[in-house]
Design brief:
The protein has about 300 residues and is an alpha/beta fold. The protein contains eleven helices and ten strands. The chain starts with 13 loop residues before the first strand and ends with a helix. Pfam families: AP_endonuc_2.
Length: about 300
Amino acid sequence: MSAARADAPVLDRIRVGSAPDSWGVWFPDDARQVPWRRFLDEVTEAGYDWIELGPYGYLPTDPAVLRDETARRGLGVSAGTVFTSLHHGPAVWDATWAQVSRVAALARATGAGHLVAIPSFWRDDRTAEELEPPELTAAQWRHLAEGTERLARQVREEFGLMLVVHPHADTHLDTEEHVTRFLDATDSGLVSLCLDTGHYAYCGGDSVALIRTYGERIGYLHLKQVDPGVLADVRAKGTAFGPAVRQGVMCEPPRGVPALPPVLEAAQELGTALFAIVEQDMYPCPPERPLPIARRTRRFLRSCGA
């Protein structure tokens, strides 16, 4: 692996990892995905020290088994991931907590400190069918803010984890306008963001500007880039996220936007330790494709000082 450039900053507060997503894993069980042992072997071979759990059930859900499998490869677990639809109000709380609690329990048992929460999609990510209006009502915004604060509080109290909310394409939390509205409506002492640089760029946002403006709310990073040419076509045609991924909208760094060195440098300047987990959406993909990309991406991030 290459060393950092002589002029690269020392990004000693950034802990770099990767995730099943970068191996084309979107589902707990899918014949087109690499087996979980292969993912763990290859993420280690690529030079990463940290992973996320990915979709619940892809990696072993027995904490003892998962701890053994990660420990013998020298891997730590940074976070688990859940999907929520809290804008629907108190009626969805019980189902939400049932899902969240099992993922949070596994995350805690494997030493993770974070839980990434992704809002539900407003349109089907395969067919582009509109499942609900793309804009929330005032009441739904209130439900989203209050429900997220409740979830963050309970996750912290019962599991000792920090909830980080992930703005995501084709959800109600996507653009700069929506993200800032959400941040302004929620308690900064409870609710933090998982800033995904690729999704934010996909939706027209500026990651560096967000970090500089709302730095105290950035609790976690996903490192990702979009191909501007493909994105322009996706926007022109109104393509849903799933087909856009198959079209190659998320690309290997440093080939896309945003440029990652300024993002990492802005994050370093916050003065707090942050995970920066590489994600390159590419479901489905040939099983031999992820490892070479992961190796090159890790070399690139080292050259940036991370």
